[in-house]
Amino acid sequence: MPALKKDGTAVPGNYLHLDLKGTIPGYARMLEFLRFFKKCGYDGIVWEYEDRLPWRSWKGNWRGGFDMRIWEDCRTLDLEVIPLIQTLGHLEWLLKHDEYSGLRENGLISELCPLHPEGMGHLKRWLNEVAELHPESRFIHLGLDETWFLGSCEKCRRHDKMQLYLNHAKELCEYVLSLNLRPMLWGDMFWREQRLSLARELPPGTVLVDWQYGGEPPYDTTLELQRSGHTVMGASAAMCSWWEHAGQMQGPPGDRIRNVTGWKRRGDANGMGIIHTTWGRGNSLMNIYGPWHGAVPAFIAGGRPERWETHPWNRFMKRITRVMERGIPQELEAAATAVLEMETADEIEAQSRLWWHLALRYHSIRKDFTLRCDTRRSRRKVMAFTGHDEAMYRRHCIEPSRSRMHAAVRWEEEARQFWRDNELSDETEFFATHSDIVKAEMERYLENPDIRVDL
Ligand SMILES: [Zn+2]
User: Fold this and answer.
1) Where are the domains of the chain?
2) Distance 190 CA to ligand 1 centre (A)
3) What CATH class does 3-311 carry?
4) Distance 337 CA to ligand 1 centre (A)
5) Which of 4, 40, 181, 193 sits between 20 and 30 A of 423, alpha carbons compared?
6) What does 85-113 look like in DSSP terms, one character per residue?
7) What are the tens digits of pLDDT across the range 186-219?
């Protein structure tokens, strides 16, 4: 369905999804981001709340960090609000608590059992609460992606897996429609299980969202989902993937920019609404990604691809992508210095520039250290052939790591300052799960270069 603007004209909506399970800015900084998103050309925000709201339906799990005043600011800025809650899989934030362990599918903390007699009642009460909190919203996004363990408990095993999925999704969609709202769900389970024909059985008014984060459209899955007769939206990723963020601060920006601009152009050409996703971490039990500042180039590009073509950052991001893919420490460090020359138009861009500088420096430090570790054994063996001794080996091969250690300590001080200046959440967790690990390995290595470095 094309989104309806307040003046009644139909336009395909261009939405930004913000996943709150990672690091998020405090209220004032979040408001700055919202103004920036509006300027980029977005029509609304899909908020994935997880445990950032004090849910009445799930007491005792509130993580805090999100200020509900932001909905009023969205209204002022004419940014539509779409709430997203997960209603089958990706419920680690909830099911990890003993109190709700009875609802788990086959004892696993990521998924609800769709046949649990109390599950649907809980979900409907939760949907009532979501609708109450969002009296002006037109949609509720029900998640429903990646239900890896569906049909695995003793009770569910006796049924057809995708029939279980369909019955569950259908009942939820019908309930959302009864609240006078339109349900959205991710479409991947239908194509993963090659049961696309089942999507037709969802009630009229349902919106299927085809998320594809690699490369650019067209994708066969979009066409297949469109055959269901339901409205289909596309979804890109401005920030995603554990492999892009494992141990690093950022993935190469080129992949994200290609994906967001590809989807936006496809949406414009076909009158299809788009949701650009911004993930906070792979799931709520995995490591936190960097702050939204890293996705600013993708936010600009996903808002208006034609603006990105002539944006002064375009050539810098091409260079960063090349350099990150090659992974040579000196090139990463040179790029970190070069980005400081990027022109900025506002405070968000200024902070994003600083984040990219920090991210590239971190990559350089980490890469230099891991390369040094990778070559140490062969370098020690070389002594027998070239005639240099243990002292020279240490001086040439091990001691340079000491300066990288100092660089890592300095880096962390500056990055922590960035966290505080931008009022970012989860500082302790972020640094404990990123730079602290590298620093600890560097210390161990300096003490005894023969150990196995664990990075
Ligand atoms: Zn079950």
Assistant:
1) 3-311, 327-447
2) 19
3) alpha beta
4) 54
5) 40
6) --SSS--HHHHTSGGGGGGEETTEEEEE-
7) 999 999 999 999 999 999 999 999 999 999 999 9
